[in-house]
Amino acid sequence: MTDQLSTAAPAPVLEARGVGKTFTGVAALQGVDFTLRAGESLALMGENGAGKSTLIKVLTGVYQPDEGQIFLHGEPASFAKPVDAQHAGISTIYQEVNLVPLMTVAQNIFLGREPRNRFGLIDFRKMQEDARALLATYDIHVDVRRPLRSLALGMQQMVALARAVSIDARVVIMDEPTSSLEAREVETLFRVIGMLRSQGIAIVYVSHRMDEIFAICETVTVLRDGKVVHNGRLTDLSRVELVALMLGRSVEKVKRGGVTAFGEVKEGEGEPVLTARDLSRKHQISGIGLDIRPGEVVGLGGLLGSGRSETLKAMAGVMQLDEGSLTVDGKRVRSGSVAAAIKAGVVMLPEDRKAEGIVPNLSIRDNIVLAALPRLSRAGFTSRAKQDAIVDVFMKRLRIKAASPNQVVSELSGGNQQKVMIARWLAMNPKVLLLDEPTRGIDVGAKAEVQALINELADEGLAIVLVSSELEEVVEGSARVVVLRDGSVERELRGSEVTEQHLMAALVGENHAPADESPAEIKERL
Amino acid sequence: MSLALEPSVGPATTKQVTRERIAGNVQRYGAAIVLGLLLVVGSFAFPTFPTVSNFTNIATQSSFLLIVAVGMTFVILTGGIDLSVGSVYALGGILAAYGSTWGIAGAVLLPLLVCGTVGILQGLLIAYGGMAPFIVTLAGLLGIRGLVFALTNEGANTPLIKDASVTALGQGGLLGLRWPVVIAVVVVVIGSVLLARGRGSQTVLAVGGSESAAVLMGLPVARVKFSVYVVSGLCAGLAGALNAAYSSSGVPTVGVGLELSAIAAVVIGGTLLTGGRGNLIGTTAGVLLLTVIQNLINQVGSLTSSVQAVVSGIFLAVVVIIQTVLSRTQRL
Predict the structure, then answer these.
(1) Which candidate from B3, B206, B218 shows the least CB-CB separation from A139?
(2) Domain B48-330 in CATH 1.10.3470
(3) Range name among A365-369, B13-17, B113-117, B226-230 with the lowest pLDDT average
(4) How far is CA A181 from each of CA A158, A184, A355, A362, A423, rounded to the nearest angstrom?
(5) Which residues form the signal peptide (chain A) (predicted)?
């Protein structure tokens, strides 16, 4: 193993040559060549829909390639099931932790290969000792007898990683492993990744976070439209070049476009369409007041736990209020009722679209018309023609990329799923659109489209409230920003005050940006 | 640098940890605690209740349901359900009666063979055919009951057991306990050891806890799901055979609604209906609880069996409510 590391180019552990995969006539992968060497950490980059997930699934036996061949240690290999790939030493860490929450840490690590005593019964003591020792090698110290679900998500992820590696993995594929981790947990993960690499284990890392990619990856493979467009060392690329490769645009164009795709933003005029007064709920928010006018995007800034999501939920009727009033177009809206909020024209795009938004097994059409069904029905029957008309309009207008309206939503990329969600609410003819992290977990290109869409919708007179943990998104997308802290309004930024500097100062509760803390440091605390 | 353990949300307060532990214990031993209370209260309220003969009676009455409930516990732990056990129980009784012409071996092996096959068929459809347990075993409930009636001339025949060795299996016993009770205890002990320390049981818990995770971990998910229905079929058949031996006849109408009692006992015993957590001590307490409630109501004398059903129903509702509250507490 050490010999391998010392040579300039260790032998490839895992290779794909000319791999192709087609789904119902659409080519997800075409002639993909991919090489992974021992101890290498490779970033697999590409927009959503570029074929990253499909390639991973082909490499881990979830899908079988239609063309081409997989090679393991130079020998042709084929995996009929994920288990086959696991036995061959290829483990996958998924975005969501795929362990059993009710079972203990030790049980999870040794599921399927429990140590047994001479009577063939499970030896729990040895299992716990082994689990403790295994985790200790990565400097992780937890009570292995605790149920997994009592651990923080990051720790669960680490347990999953320890399990994967302890099954003699030579390749670990990580699919957005940090999407639910905190900064400190990410650090631990990176440390563990470093240790794995020094043992000669190869890492494939998929993430949308550029910082992470550049921090831990050596090489990069960029996919676009199912083809490999770049293969090489990461240090030879700048961030802009990488983004340009992913998008297939020129570097200049990417630079000119800025970080976000928001156009000019302006404050709304006239009477506020939505007025919130003194929104309060014990331990969560207190005395929050907001005015939103037609045609404006109001950013809602705040650190995690500042009450920004809660404020949106309160306005959308998802959360019961202890006190406070909500008025839309002069009419009081009953609090704590989603139906009343929707009827008044207030709709919310939830933060976690997987859990709270899309119905994955329904078609695009069904997902879009779901909320509008009561409006489209007469005497309990719905008009198919009316549905089709609405679906058609929104698919075109929001540029939803799909084979047909009948395609199942779970097959779409994250960006397109988000657009389907937006379409669902637009179909309700809302007056106020509440967006909670509308671009989280979607790739650069789709992000830009969603941002441009938010702009357009505001221009058409919709009142929009935007919550985002990305500062530049809030700053560039909003005409004014209401900053929350500890559940109440800290201050409001308008006009020239809407800058990252001011926003960050307000987030931490200071009137001026402190000199001794760099923006990066404050960002860290987000 | 070492990483300190932090619980999922915010810093761990000892209060939180304690509350979690209490909630977990109540969930696990709640049925046993209530059973204990009921025994104490019953003993003070009715002088005829705390007698040896009454307790032996309760034990015998519980034993048949307990064996069925052990199989049901394994099924429910995987997140499944077996509605066919009541009908399979009746089938086991009829076959034991017919089989008793070949002595005790026939009376035991014939029901186990046929009821095990029923479990195999249901297990195949569910585990390898990917069909819903509810529907497959509902078909079993209807179909097997039909088979029982077909075997007994539309229920007109009640095959009697004349072989003395077979009736002894029901009526005889050890240390004052009838054989069905002894066998039920053995079944619970074997089941408990397998569940706590057996290798397959880990997969049972994993499948119930998160089937997709179990599949991705390469566990033998289908094989385990298949096995629990076979175990459940065997348990129901064995219980039916013992009941026939006890009553010296195979009655075609026994076991109607038994599946619901078994499910109730399992859930009252603290097994999550969604699977992934539970134990057989709880199931045993659940079964005894149902029988003791019935016995206490009989002690009152003037109350009908419909009252007993109402009380059991309320009990079940309360347990489900407590379970929901407790699992919320634990997820804090």
Answers:
(1) B3
(2) yes
(3) B13-17
(4) 10, 8, 18, 30, 30
(5) none
- Which one, of A79, A84, A67, lies nearest residue A28 by Cα? A67
Q: Does B214 touch chain A (CB under 8 A)?
A: yes
CB atoms within 10 A of CB A143: 13
Interface test with B, best of A60, A84, A150, A191 (most B CBs within 10 A): A150
B14: contact with A, CB 8 A cutoff = no
Tokens read off for A409: 């939503």
| ipTM higher than threshold 0.90 | no
pLDDT band at B81, cuts 50/70/90? very high
Q: Give me the mean pLDDT over the A70-79 stretch.
A: 86
Instruction: Report pLDDT digits (tens) over B212-225.
Output: 888 877 788 899 99
The alpha-carbon gap from A57 to the nearest alpha carbon of chain B, in Å, equals 12
Residues of chain B neighbouring A107 (CB-CB closer than 8 A):
202, 205
Return the structure tokens found at A331. 């009419």
pLDDT in tens, A437-456: 887 767 667 777 788 888 88
Q: Residue B115 carries which side chain, given as an amino acid letter?
A: C
A90 to chain B, minimum CA–CA distance in Å?
12
As beta bridge partners, residue A42 has A204, A219
pLDDT confidence band for A180 (50 / 70 / 90): low
Out of B2, B5, B199, closest to residue A116 by CB:
B199
A190 touches chain B (CB under 8 A): no
Describe chain A by its helix, strand, coil percentages, rounded to 5. 35, 25, 35
3-state secondary structure of A266: coil
How far out from the chain centre does Cα A306 lie? 21
Considering only CB atoms, B7 lies closest to which of A94, A139, A150, namely A150
Q: Where are the domains of chain B?
A: 48-330
On the question of pLDDT at B29 being above 50, the answer is yes
Is A2's pLDDT higher than 50? no
The answer on pLDDT for A517 being more than 60 is no
Alpha helix segments (H runs only) across A460-518: 471-477, 500-507
> Is-contact A62 A90, C-beta < 8 A?
no
A304 by Cβ neighbours in 10 Å (0-12 / 13-18 / 19+) ranks as exposed
pLDDT exceeds 70 at position A77? yes
The angle formed by the CA atoms of residues B180, B133 and A79, to the nearest 5 degrees, is: 115
Can you read off the two tokens belonging to residue A124?
């729990």
Q: List the single residue in A with minimal CA-CA distance to B196.
A: A122
Mean pLDDT (chain A, rounded): 79
Domains of chain A: 2-89+171-256 (3.40.50.300), 259-345+430-526 (3.40.50.300), 358-428 (no CATH)
Over residues B118-122, the mean pLDDT reads 95
